[in-house]
UniProtKB/TrEMBL annotation:
Transmembrane segments: 36-54, 74-91, 98-116
Endonuclease/exonuclease/phosphatase domain sequence ranges: 129-331
Keywords, ordered alphabetically: Endonuclease, Hydrolase, Membrane, Nuclease, Transmembrane, Transmembrane helix
Alphabetical list of Pfam families matching this protein: Exo_endo_phos
Organismal lineage: Bacteria, Bacillati, Actinomycetota, Actinomycetes, Kitasatosporales
One function term, GO molecular function aspect: endonuclease activity
Superkingdom in the source lineage: Bacteria
Protein name per UniProt: Endonuclease/exonuclease/phosphatase family protein
Length: 340
């Protein structure tokens, strides 16, 4: 009698399945699970909506609570919804939701991916810095010295209380022999300045100025501005109307500038994406966008979420742009190096 022996493999007598068989089994299970395509339609719709918001944000109306400008201010943060939808799509085991999620992911990287790379270079002729020092700053002298320590040749400060101007002047006098304070904004320079005057941005008091800096490479027109603050209120939305009017006035002043090389330093209370700042952004380049490393968020200092402090140029080539360490202000100071 011949007795046959069979090894006990624990899988019904079969050996290990090849990877191709496992793939076919998975494919077959997916094919049998018809609900994998029907589930997650709402999640897929959310992905499509995010995509439209990024592509068509300029068409979101500002007539209701300045919703368009509010969206554009925090537009990069829309990426946070992508991992949330990814997890929900996996939980729902929805192929439709996961495939639709590719739309906002691809569009976000197309719009903002360039900001994730380091575009800074070497060289340059002039280093500039700007800082909203905060009227309630408990250490104005230390703040001024910290910004001056960046090595900047020209510094602009905003939100200068009248009672602390002397403190800032004393702290910066040794490094910057030339300066001017107009209202609540000021500019300090290592090089001579001239033709300094306030700029009317339709606020009723001075929060912007213009001056000429005589650099070793020639004259450069400098603007310093602190546009009106904005607020998010439940009953009124994004209250930015006064800021928008001031931005238009500032843009007109820059357009009338006679010098070919212009630098704008200041707190614009808005980002480069905000269409309400078009009067300014349409004629100038952001140093951060052209030569920065990352988004360069500057506010709030405790957890920066938006770059509302700006260094912008016209007729000047940005070489590098960066944020500086925090001071006692609620804004981060920022700096840039440019080629004249």
């Amino acid at each position: 009698m011949v007795q046959a022996y069979r090894a006990d493999t624990g899988n019904g007598g079969e050996g290990p399945q090849p990877s191709g068989s496992r793939f076919r089994d998975l494919r077959d299970r997916l094919a049998r699970d018809r609900g994998i395509w029907r589930r997650g339609i709402v999640l897929a719709g959310c992905s499509v909506l995010l995509t439209f918001v990024m592509l068509l944000h300029s068409h979101i109306p500002n007539t209701i609570g300045n919703l368009g400008s509010l969206t554009e201010t925090f537009l990069p943060w829309i990426a946070l919804f992508v991992p949330v939808l990814l997890v929900l799509g996996l939980v729902r085991r929805s192929a439709t939701a996961l495939i639709a999620l590719l739309l906002p992911a691809v569009v976000w990287f197309n719009v903002f991916g360039g900001l994730l790379t380091d575009k800074s270079g070497g060289g340059g002729d002039l280093t500039v810095a700007t800082h909203n020092v905060n009227a309630d700053n408990a250490d104005p002298s230390g703040t001024a010295q910290q910004v001056a320590g960046s090595g900047a040749d020209v510094i602009a400060l905003q939100e200068l209380p009248a009672g602390q101007v002397k403190t800032y002047e004393s702290a910066l006098a040794a490094r910057f022999p030339y300066h001017s304070v107009q209202g609540t904004v000021g500019l300090w320079s290592k090089y001579p300045i001239s033709d300094t005057r306030p700029v009317d941005i339709k606020m009723g008091w001075v929060r912007a100025m213009r001056t000429t800096v005589a650099t070793p490479e020639g004259k450069v027109g400098f603007f310093v501005a602190h546009l009106p603050s904005v607020r998010v209120k439940l009953h009124a939305g994004f209250t930015a109307n006064q800021r928008d009017k001031s931005a238009d006035a500032l843009g007109a002043a820059i357009a009338d500038e006679r010098l070919d090389r212009v630098v704008l330093l200041g707190d614009l209370n808005g980002t480069m994406n905000d269409r309400s700042l078009n009067a300014v952004t349409s004629q100038m380049r952001s140093t951060q966008g052209a030569a920065g490393d990352g988004f360069g968020f500057s506010w709030p200092a405790s957890f920066p979420m938006a770059r509302i402090d700006q260094i912008m140029v016209k007729g000047v080539d940005p070489v590098s742009s960066w944020t500086l360490p925090a001071t006692d202000s609620d804004h981060l100071p920022i700096a840039a190096r440019v080629r004249l």
